[in-house]
Write a structure and sequence with these properties.
Layout: H1 5-14, H2 37-47, H3 78-84, H4 91-108, H5 110-114
Length: 116
Amino acid sequence: MHRDTDDVARVHIQALDRVRIKGNARYLLASHEIVNLRAVAKRLREEDPRLAEVLPDVELDVEGFEKRKARLARLDLSESDALFGVTWKSAYESIKEIVLDDLRWNEENKHEKASM
């Protein structure tokens, strides 16, 4: 199950609406997509050559990433989907932000690592 921190923050803010979201309830929030981390790594390497040094070069199986849309787990998300919506960042976008933030941090702090 994947949830981006931006998505989780948005749901927490929505949950403050006591008229729409009743208290004393628990909601299961989960992505409807299956994450293929090899496909994410491959796509990130293709889009940004700097990542070739930090992400593994992987091969995809013959089915590829886009065909892996079948649900492996059966979850009833109808109540949380109705209350909070189903518009989430994709796993790819979420992972991309994390990887690029890490790359930027490493580039900005390269001089500090060298002096250690």
